[in-house]
Design a protein that fits this description.
The strands form four sheets. Strands 9-10-11-12-13-17-14 form a seven-stranded mixed β-sheet, sandwiched between helices. The longest helix is centred in the last third of the chain and has 25 residues. The chain is an alpha/beta fold. α2 packs parallel to α3, α13 crosses α16 and α16 packs across α17. About 50% of the residues lie in helices and about 15% in strands. It starts with a strand and ends with a helix.
Length: about 675
Amino acid sequence: MAGCGQATTSLDRRLRQTREHHFVGRAAELALLREALERAPEPLGVLYLHGPGGIGKSTLLRYFGDDAAAAGRRVVHVDGRAVSPSPARFELAAADALSDETAVLLVDSFEHCQGLEDWLRDRFLPRLPESVLVVLAGRGGPGPQWRADPAWRDLLKVIPMDNLSREHAVALLNRRGVPPDLHPSVLSFAGGHPLALRLAAEVAVTHDAAATAVWRPSLNVVETLLTQLIGETPSPLHRQALEICAHAQTTTEGLLRAALDRDPGPIFAWLRELPFIESDARGLRPHDVVRDALNDDLRWRDPQGYETMHRRLHAYLLEQALAATGPAVLPAVGAMMYLQRHAQEIRRYFTFADEGEAYEDPYQPADRPTVLDLASEAEGPESAALVGFWLDRQPEGCHVYRSSATDEVVGFMIWLDLDDPQPAELEADPVVDTAWRHCRASAPLRGGEHIGLARFMVHPPSCQRPSPVTDMIQMRMLAHYLHDKGLALHYLVLHDAEFWGPHLAYFDDHPVETVPQVGGRPYHLFFHDWRVTPLMHWLDHNQQQLLYGLQPRTARPGADLLVLSRPEFDAAVRSAMRAWRRPDALAANPLVRTRLVADRPDGDRPDGDPVDALRGVLGAALDGLRDDVRSHRVLVTTFVHGTPTQEAAADRLGLPFSTYRRHLTRALDRISDALWHRELHG
């Protein structure tokens, strides 16, 4: 199809005026196009626009075509979707460009005739008049042959297209008449993606803002987006891989293998070539709009399939996070936490920022002046003095957060491990004193246990509100939950309990009634008892909330679990062994209400038999004694096989009674030690 700038109808003018009114942003891209146009009659060459579907390539081409026509150039449009991908058909569609040296050839949707790329570069374009400007627009960038040919290096200009800036996205919504109150929720869905913004705007302008100031995309909007952005996939398996890629923060072959349970190589290679998929050192990631549209569509269309996918990914990422060490810990934990992004309620408390505005670094003595200055700025000189106090005692608990641009420290956190704080420490810090008093009053520590205290979480620009730095602080806390052996309770110290309180309640953190002050400023403490709600139960309940909606806990899961002292625990083990053949006595044993049994896969199932669960725990501990033949035989003979008296057990074993008693005591001590270790550490 061809058009000339001299033949302009009133409808042409109206169309151009409408396009000008709704056209926002793209100043840099448009400047490059206009610069090339103004160079005529010099040799012009080829401009290659590329970007994901819906990013605005066609809109930019049409707008630029109006500019070219107004400048008196013959505009030749070729739509890759409408032309057969054969040299003859393409040449017929672009014939005017071969014969008119004023022509501007615009080829839209070039991905539909990508097979002609070599022919176009080597056979067709060299036949055009030198002053003809060619603009190709497609989802993928130019093939490597363009760069490999020295002759094309100066004649090819590649222009990648990305999202609109927030300023231009807001301008687009304003021009479409979207009420300002709805801008935050529309932008949360669409970001700066032009097609998503336009689709959302069409629906949002009819939204009843008086009823609710939160707009959510309709299923029609999501379906239209997916059709435009993705189109048809080669197979259901390819679609499943896309949905996995949308759900995870980044996708590697390892993650895809775990989620699909098959060799992911060919499908991973296919994902990697999609125009809306970016790749970096961590793996593949889709454009945010594609990510959200795919995720929302699957969640609505196949809730059971969505849950299966989510749980597989969570299990894989949890395994990676538990195995990570050193600098690999935070990225692994961050990948696991990213799954929470898909719960709308959680987004209020995380930014989930992928771009590295800051990074975590171990504290160094040279950081001390900056850390103290940040503490003074955020919390006052009294708190800064306490930061110095704890840096002298537990410097390893401090993590600093540096600006990626300048390497300057912009925030820090201090995590304290405490099992027996000194009187001077409790006297110096009223916040630590409050946490320790609460621990001793409600759930005293047992041997080998300690509390963790997120004492300082400082990032002055955010004032403890969500930011990339507070995201990393939350990741570091989760890393402590996953890796701290012997962590009995943790305490979080916050200023803004009103903001963070609902978020912490969802995740089983409960307020401490006493509110200490430092420098006249109140500090609110929240705690979680890991002995009452162990890690795996906590994680599983969190997944339930993320899948089925977040509701504040009215009753604490596992609140009926017992936290036994060591003497109480040893007595319960001996009682359980004596009751091995008496189900009624086993059911009443305190061990069935401990973490020891609750940690079993069937320990907290409503239909799980507590007697079977306790026997399973005791049986596993017995199996662990097989290397000690005497201890193992004594316990099995006395309790599992059963004898009427200990004397009868000694006779059956062929041992003097005093020797039997010595072996029995040693065996019970060993099995109790093994079970105690499991009770403490999981």
